[in-house]
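Let us begin with a simple case.
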Amino acid sequence: MSNSTTYDIDKYLKQNVHVLPQNNQLRALHTIIRNRQVSREDFVFYSSRIIRLLIEAGLNLLPFEPLEVETPVGNTYNGLQFASKLCGVPIIRAGESMESELRAVCPAIRIGKILIQRDKVTKLPHYYYSNLPEDIHERHILMLEPMLATGGSAKVAIQLLLDKGVQEDKIIFVNFITVPEGIHAVCSKYPKIKIVTSSIEEELNENAFMIPGIGDFGDRYFGTVN
């Protein structure tokens, strides 16, 4: 039994949701990690390659300002620099799988943490803990969470950031895979949020797993699959 509700997400795809180019390389990487027989080593390696692409795409959505520098040959290069302070906020635990790739491209970035866990029976999210920089309200946020399914956990995390003074249009949700239901749930409530993802799946099944999906990303990445 699958989710029969149809969600029209075309309007969000035009302004909120940024999907990585669906080229052959990305499809090949997805083929490896979606295979239930893949080793954990390969799952981590190839999913990390996709995460790096997502991080780079998320950074490209941030504001830039002009910066001139002198080149080694004495000429001027009219370049750009990030126009604001950044903060990465992984949602524990699965979101921490994306943290190393963020640190690889932004070594000095501040990192906050939010712990939200979904009840395996009710599927409802429960907030437990957060630790965020005191000046979080002054920063652009890269919120890290691989799975956007029902959107419950994402909405709790976003609301927490807003309650801390973060501006809605300064939150970029870096997400591995999602479904129309998750996109609708987040973007209909927070229309200024930007989402970067590598795949929009077909639907959710009766257990709130994405179809065709990749299973539980955190369990597969950290090696806690039963």
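The second case is a distinct protein. As before, the sequence precedes its structure tokens.
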Amino acid sequence: MKLVLLVLTVTMPLAQVIPVKKCWGKLGRCRIMCEEGELFYILCNAEAKCCVNPKYVAINTGFSNYTGSLE
């Protein structure tokens, strides 16, 4: 029983999840590879990319000179 307690005491801190570094106003996550459906816009550090879901990225349409006529 003491051996089981010792093993649990040693392995529990090792099993904790490493906190994920956030980016893009806390809407993105720093990863080596982005998951399917995520986009990469900026770098978090030398090896990690800021992976963001496209629904959180504003669409830059630029300046439009459209007046509604067909000419």
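The chain is about 20% helix and 20% strand. The CA atoms of residues 8 and 68 lie 70 Å apart.
Keep these points in mind for the review questions at the end of the chapter.
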